[in-house]
Model the fold of this input.
Amino acid sequence: MKRGSPRREFILAGAGALAAWVSTPPAWSAQENTFYPAVKPRALVFPQDHGAHPDYRTEWWYLTGWLGEGRGAMGFQLTFFRSRTQHPSANPSRLAPKQLLFAHAALSIPQEDRYLQAHRSGRLSGTRLSAAVSDTAVQFDDWSLRRLSNKGEEVYEGQFAGEGFALSFLASTHERPLLRGHGGVSPKGPEAQHSSYYYSRAPLAVNAQVKWGARTQSMQGVAWLDHEWSSQVLMPGAVGWDWLGINLLDGGSLMAFQIRDAQAQTPYAQVDARDRQGQARQDWRRLRWIGGGPWRSKSLIEYPIPMSVELDGVVYRLEPMMLAQEVDARSSTGGFYWEGAVSLMQGDQCLGHGYLELTGYGAPLNL
Done:
């Protein structure tokens, strides 16, 4: 089906209505507590934990990349979201909306000041829309992400296309997954239920074929993959989060997030800095987020960018590849948020490249 066809628009509209129908208020109810399994401490087991976990409420595979250097650099992201609804599992109909799949993709082209994005939503069907449980293999029509393994090297193969742009890539690593939190169980608040299973693959060496307009270009760079699943990420009263993933030029990585409430306070935050061997960096253990801006987007939402972070008393600037990197997800997961390529700067020195995500600024995030 071609993008924009009546049939596709009908499907997208129906899926959006379904998403709104099955969404629930942020408060944790007794019904939800029994319907969805809790996140409990356990060892992550691979390759099966690379795959989908359909019993849990929310899951995503989130891959971002930085391609090229200097004025010709580009950023891209591809995200698949799986959502389990509270539709009765005993319903035998294949059309029953038990599992929904959403997909976002974007391409940042700063030399042309263009931010291209596309979104999809629908029911998991096991054919055109699928998420394998044995390994990473997610598909939404011609969009896909899958993991391949050969002689110690792991490769993520992916592709997506939108109106006027397309990208296909291979992102490879020889390193083990980086387990977040406590052995892959990442707390997001003071209570045990406010946790997720969470690991990253970073850095990934990426080779990509980029098409936009009449142009096609082969590009190389570095990428980052997050895989996370849970039954409740946000604690009561939380409105959103700020998240940062940076591939450092020295081969290490920096991941950090903070959960925000309606008073712009931070009831929970975490930082995870690793060296090139994947070991914890002892010099970056304390982090403070410093809002900048504000920058107002076309949606009239004000974001605190450019931002900075303070790590153990030293301030580092998060310099956006371009300011206009706001995601318009109203046709899929809903609402607006800022998600863009940034560089970690100390004065005039660049320490690394990655992505910054800012949610819950226009309206509280409702997963």
In short: DSSP finds two helices and 24 strands in the chain. Residues 6-25+47-358 form a domain with the AttH-like fold fold (CATH 2.40.370.10). The longest helix spans residues 6-22. The chain has a mean pLDDT of 88.
